[in-house]
Structure formats: structure tokens, C-alpha cells
Fold this protein.
Amino acid sequence: MRAAFIENGKVHVGDMPEPVPAQGQALVRTHSCGMCASEAHFLHAGQNVIDLSRQFGGPYAALDFSRPFVPGHEYVGEVLDYGPGSERKVKPGRRVTSVPVMRAGGEHKVIGFSHECPGGFGELMLLDEGMLIEIPDGLEDDLAAMIEPLAVGLEHARRGHPTKEDTVLVVGCGAIGLGVIAGLRLMGIAPIIAADFHPERRQQALAMGADLAIDPREMSPYEPIAGLGGRQVNLVYENVGLPGMLQQIITSVRFDSRIVMGGYCMAPEQLYIFAAQNKRLTIHFAAGEEPQDMDLALRAIADGRIDVRPWLGERIGVNGVAAAIAAMSGPTAPVRTVVDPRLL
């Protein structure tokens, strides 16, 4: 099959072996796959990510950075067939997405970060049939590919156990931060303050439901905000993933606040624990989405409650993957570039 793959920290395009489904696995032809910052992380620091997973436990420990693997975990595709002995609950020809994990065969693998389970930057994938979520006919491929990144934000939003008495700050308004805002709005939480350096992302935060979007270089989001009746944030969602962010939030928030860490930081973080203890802070560490989050993301996109169309940027084939990954961190980069591996 044709695929864009990562090998030794570089993106290549070429032929990869076609995956063969075993029991409990579906063979799926990729239609669309969103491009996540995690792919860029692996280009620049993949061996470090693998080493940390092996040292502290993590889903990337089985990867060999010198061997090719096909990334892409925000996908939608068409079921072609199943391995022998599978339940086959979703008919071939139907489109599906899933939580990007493979559990069949007693092993846990992350789709797109596995040598055995190629991701959506290739023409074919293996998905766990027990995790399949069928896509309704009226939902476009590229919108369906946004289900997974939106679901991560929805998981983070509920992980903070928000209430209508909270004043919420969302730090970082990429796809995950925007998903957090959308999830909070679905729960009826307000006010929501968004903080991001880039004006385009602040506008998107307002469109997703934030009440106020600020540049943290111009005003502190932690001080009482006159435009919100002097309210002060007590629940902070961090979606940046840079070292130093958690300590900065600890230093800035008020007594008895809650912090949800969603940013995927792979560098050591130095904390002054006493500062958090003295303020009686609660810190939640959010992770990936669960099936309930995928289901809610699908329904919310399909019925129009959450509009992710503004997230979509260029649609590219496999030959455009390397350039798109290199450009994805710029201030004017789209929230998501979509890869269709059927295209060159």
C-alpha cells in the first residue's frame, strides 16, 4: 500500500506492506485523516519519547525509531473485510472511526504509533472491531476525521468536574483547547476565558463558545476580570504542553483552584510543591478520549451543536505530508490539515 511514513525522524513516501487482519480486527481503507502535533513531536524527539515510555511506562515503548511506521490517528475509513472468526458487526462498505487503540489479540497498541497497526497516512489500516464507531451517511469524511481530536477535548473538559459556579480558563486554543471550550459550553459552563498568543486562535475560541479571549502578554487571565463582574478563575485547563506551564499556573491561580493538565509535555517539569500545597490545589492529569467522548463528539458534529468546519485547512495527499508537518506550528497554520492517502 502507498503511505507517508516516519523512519529515523524523517517523512518518506512509498510502499509499505499491506496489513492482514487477525481475529477481532477490521481491515479499513482510509478516506481522511487529521494531522496532529504528535506527529511533529515524533519527527523532532521521537527517540526521546520512546525512551521515556520504556523508562516510565507508556504506549510508545514497543516502537523502534529506526524502523518505518505509518502515523495518523484521527481517521475515517471504509470497512473492507475482517480477520477470520471476527464478529463483523459493521458491514463492509460502511465508514467508521474508532478510539485509536488495538486491543485484539491481548496486546495494547496505539494506531499510528505501531509497526503492526499503521495509521491513517496510509491507504489501509487495521482497527479493533470492538472499538468501531459507524459514521452516518450525511457526515462528510473530513468532518468525521475531526471526531477524535474533538473527543480528546471533551474528555479533558469533563475531567475537571466543572460546575456552573466555576470561572474557567482555557490556556492554549489549538484543537484540544477548542474542544475543551466546546465541551464546557455543551455542559452549560460559563464564563469561559480563553488565552492564546495568536489572534486567529482567539477568534476561533470565541466561535467555539468562549466568553472572553485574551492575549496573556497584554493582561493576566488570573486577576479579577472587570468585564466579568470581577470574577476570578478557579478552574484552569492547560493545553500547551511546554515545560514550566504547570508551575506558572500554580504560581498564578488563587486558593482552592483546580488544574487540568491536557498538554502533552515530554520534557521534565520542575515544581515547587509547597506552593500548590499552600493553596490547596487539585491537579488532574487528563489523557486520551474514551468511547463515550467519541460518541458525544460524533453526535455533536453530526447534529450541528459543534461546528468544526473552521478547523479544516488544506486537503493533501501523501506527497504533501512532510511539508504540512513542517508548517503546522506556525501562527497562521490551520487547526487541522487533512490527509487523504488515496491522493498523491
Remarks:
- Residues 149 and 160 are 18 Å apart (CA to CA).
- Residues 37-56 form the longest helix (20 residues).
- The first strand starts at residue 2 and ends at 7.
- DSSP finds nine helices and 17 strands in the chain.
